[in-house]
Specification:
Mean pLDDT: 95
Largest sheet: 7 strands, mixed
Low-confidence stretches: 555-563, 726-734
Number of helices: 24
Strand content: 15-25%
Helix content: 25-40%
Radius of gyration: 25 Å
Structural class: alpha/beta
CATH class of the largest domain: Alpha Beta
Number of domains: 4
Strand order of the largest sheet: 7-6-20-19-18-8-9
CATH architecture of the largest domain: 3-Layer(aba) Sandwich
Bound molecules: ligand MGD, iron/sulfur cluster, molybdenum atom
Shape: globular
CATH topology of the largest domain: Rossmann fold
């Protein structure tokens, strides 16, 4: 066996290739954590096409988190005020199966909910879909991806007829203009940013535009930073389109031959004259014109976006408005160009392929489409009509379903909603009312464990073999390189065993994850995400592979123009009924909760370079703890002066729903009137520093993705001594 195991980093959607080797090579420990314990050695995989050997601090330090505070055994309690007691897997499975049957036959399958995660491997996702949507007949499977990229999914589907980011990372090094909007790529997709920044530095003619209300490290590197007011993206994009029309930078033949609905869009644009737009966005007309000129004069324009666009009450409209610019200028289907949604989580893309949202089915299919349901029913050997025609409950619907009693059983896996959901006070109250919550996580404690009746120990990355797909549709085999601790099991095995105990023995007769994957890819045949030519074995032999990747010699014609899978739509035909991409005609509606005299500031939330979400892993890595020791609130010097506070003084932040406390970081990086708080500090890691204590659940009407990026707050200087929790990194109790 080779010294190194090849895998993919389990953090962000860049999907860097890693090589991992054991703590003791030839009897000698080469790598140790800060306490001197030998740990696995991790380095970048130079052969991985997406990352070419590069890694950021999170990937580089992942090994340090693998053994700290792990959940080792199934644990059970009858009510949330009791202590957990250890049980065997057999007892846990029996209890879950019984409870599922009771809810299924008393309240009905629609009272059963599962809330999963873009940190599942594709096999975990697929088995969960087969269990929930197929065998149990409940479409109530949603994932934290609802909070993450569901607006990108619905935007792509509405504009192109199908989901699927059409670009690839090579485009970063082929573009003439990178248009980054609502993305802090430098901190959140560092290796994508490295590739772009290197190329940009070398090629002076290449332009980089960043649209973000904050002056982030990403904005620092740009030729033009448009610090727009939060929620004014559609104004800006329509304003750019207005100028492209006026200056005749549009591509009439592309519009004529390849698109529909342009007249409705052009009608909307008439209302976006530069002075109006500049005023609404809080930028200068000159900067707006520069942005339009950069776009119009470039041969190849690549737009990149993430949460500043998706996490919005008009997220789908924002995505479609970005795509509009590409359609009007013919910037798609060629190298260096296209609308590129960056997925956040390591396998959010795999989740889309496997149908891992409440309105999806495997193979980029939709619950609402009768033919799609029939195809999946047929493949799974179900009775016609067994898959419900109604999309299931979304993440937030599950919370309100707990409130009104519609949810009888909630199964949460690989996500920590007691930190990451909006309106946390309401979320936590709802979780407290849950009749039965199963929580399947790799670590203990986490904030959500406090709301569980059953804890199931999950094997995590490196302890199970499975597949992940990154933002550029590259599929990587993540091989197990160590044993799961004590009794932890892979997520898919847990779901499959429950399925068998419910009587679906042949449906879940898998002996390993390669078999699961082999079954799943059959459901992608003739679909845009065709992966029938991919298997665990081939990935191991040939390395990471981009889809579409149909089986050879199947005689199918799909994506014949892009057989390599690098780019979609190179033939300029789109998977809509008429083969044309559709313009979306949208006016900006602004923020769901605009500031007012009582709540005069807009709070925005986001991420820091070192930490990952709710810190279950990065909070346990010493180097990262030192990098970002405590939460804070960014505030502009002018606002700080008005509140009579200076750096490090404490502010209480109140919204209509809750409050939190932070030391102020006074900085010009944030615009006056806006404040920023990182999302990483849940109740376990600090006192009252939860960003989501403040946020609201208002969401995009199409994608149902909540507007986590903006809510109205008031700021009150406080002098109280607020201490951070010095959370101890003890070894696991269980
Ligand atoms: N270090 C690190 N990297 C990560 C993660 C992590 O936790 N830590 N998580 C991963 C995941 S799951 C995700 S989804 C991605 C997220 O990656 P990003 O989307 O890049 O990260 P965020 O910090 O959430 O938000 C991006 C930016 O949106 C801006 N923004 C806020 N409101 C608006 C607006 O109205 N318009 C515009 N144009 N911009 C706005 C914010 O100021 C912020 O800088 O990161 C992934 N990578
Ligand atoms: N205010 C605000 N809130 C946000 C956001 C924001 O920008 N602002 N962003 C939203 C977005 S984009 C996202 S993606 C979410 C992320 O929010 P969460 O999904 O809640 O965050 P994580 O900390 O990544 O939680 C993942 C959990 O899975 C566990 N885990 C890891 N690997 C495995 C495994 O293989 N199996 C199992 N069973 N468990 C595993 C980890 O221990 C951890 O507890 O937060 C959302 N919430
Ligand atoms: S850029 Fe993302 S995938 Fe790459 S090492 Fe960093 S966290 Fe991991
Ligand atoms: Mo995300």
């Amino acid at each position: 066996m080779s010294e190194f195991t090849k895998t993919q980093c389990p953090y962000c959607g860049v999907g860097c290739g890693l090589e991992v080797s054991p703590p003791a090579q030839y009897g000698k420990a080469t790598h140790r954590d800060s306490q001197g314990t030998p740990i696995w050695r991790v380095r970048g995989d130079k052969a991985h096409p997406s990352s070419q050997g590069m890694v950021c601090v999170k990937g580089a330090t992942i090994a340090e988190s693998l053994d700290k505070n792990r959940l080792h055994y199934p644990m059970v309690r009858d009510s949330l005020d009791q202590e957990f007691r250890r049980v065997s897997w057999d007892e846990a499975f029996d209890l879950i199966a019984k409870r599922l049957q009771t809810v299924r036959f008393t309240q009905g399958p629609e009272a059963i909910c599962m809330y999963g995660s873009g940190q599942f491997q594709t096999e975990d996702y697929y088995i969960a879909q087969k269990l929930m949507k197929g065998c149990l007949g409940s479409n109530n499977f949603d994932a934290n991806s609802r909070l993450c990229m569901s607006s990108a999914v619905s935007g792509y589907i509405q504009s192109f007829g199908s989901d699927g980011p059409p670009c690839c990372y090579e485009d970063l090094e082929l573009t003439d203009c990178a248009f980054l909007i609502g993305t802090n790529t430098a901190e959140c997709h560092p290796i994508i940013f490295n590739r772009l920044a290197k190329y940009h530095k070398k090629n002076r003619k290449v332009k980089m535009v960043v649209v973000d209300p904050r002056r982030t490290p990403t904005a620092e590197a740009a030729d033009l930073h448009l610090a727009i007011r939060p929620g004014t993206d559609i104004d800006l994009l329509n304003g750019i389109a207005y100028l492209l029309m006026r200056w005749n930078y549009i591509e009439p033949s592309f519009i004529e031959d390849c698109t529909s609905n342009f007249p409705a869009y052009a009608e909307v644009l008439r209302h976006y004259a530069p002075d109006i737009v500049a005023n609404r966005c809080g930028i200068s007309v000159a900067d707006l014109e520069t942005a339009a000129r950069y776009w119009g004069q470039s041969q190849r324009v690549l737009s990149l976006w993430s949460m500043g666009v998706n996490q919005s009450s008009e997220g789908t409209a924002k995505v479609r408005t970005i795509i509009n610019l590409h359609l009007m200028t013919g910037q798609i289907g060629k190298p260096g160009a296209g609308p590129f949604s960056l997925t956040g989580q390591p396998n959010a893309m795999g989740g889309r392929e496997a149908g891992g949202l409440a309105h999806l089915l495997p193979g980029y299919r939709l619950v609402k489409n009768p033919q799609h349901r029939a195809e999946v029913e047929d493949f799974w050997g179900l009775k016609p009509g067994q898959i419900s025609p109604n999309p299931g409950l979304t993440a937030w619907d599950m919370i309100t379903g707990l409130e009104d009693g519609a949810v009888g059983l909630l199964w949460i896996a690989a996500t920590n909603p007691a930190v990451s959901m909006p309106d946390l006070e309401r979320t936590k109250k709802a979780l407290l009312r849950s009749p039965f919550t199963i929580y399947q996580d790799a670590y203990y404690p986490t904030e959500t464990a406090a709301y569980a009746h059953v804890l199931l120990p999950a094997a995590q990355w490196g302890e199970k073999t499975g597949v992940m797909t990154n933002s550029e549709r590259t599929v990587t085999l993540c091989q197990a390189f160590r044993e799961p601790p004590r009794e932890a099991k892979p997520d898919w095995e847990i779901f499959a065993e429950v399925g068998r105990r419910l009587g679906f023995v042949k449906e879940f007769a898998f002996t390993n994850s390669a078999e699961v994957y082999a079954e799943f890819v059959q459901l992608t045949r003739h679909r845009p995400c065709n992966m029938t030519g991919i298997s665990h074995e081939k990935l191991q032999a040939q390395g990471p592979t981009q889809w579409p990747h149909p089986e050879q010699n199947t005689g199918t014609r799909e994506h014949a123009s892009s057989p390599s899978g690098k780019r979609l739509y190179t033939d300029l035909r789109f998977p809509t009924p008429d083969g044309r991409a559709r313009f979306g005609a949208y006016h900006s509606r602004g923020l769901a909760e605009p500031p007012d005299p009582n709540y005069p500031f807009v709070l925005t939330t986001g991420r820091l370079y070192g930490h990952w979400h709710t810190q279950t892993r990065t909070g346990r890595v010493e180097k990262i703890r030192q990098m970002h020791p405590e939460p804070f609130i960014e505030i502009h010097p002018r606002d700080a002066a008005r509140l009579n506070i200076t750096d490090n003084q404490w502010l209480e932040v109140r919204s209509r729903r809750g409050k939190a406390k932070f030391p102020a970081k006074v900085t010009k990086a944030i615009a006056p009137g806006t404040v920023f708080v990182p999302m990483h500090w849940g109740a376990l890691w600090a006192n009252e520093a939860e960003a989501n204590a403040l946020t609201h659940p208002e969401s995009c009407p199409d994608s149902l993705q909540p507007e986590l990026k903006a809510c109205a707050v008031q700021l009150i200087p406080i002098s109280a001594e607020v201490t951070l929790k010095n959370y101890q990194l003890q070894s696991s109790q269980w």
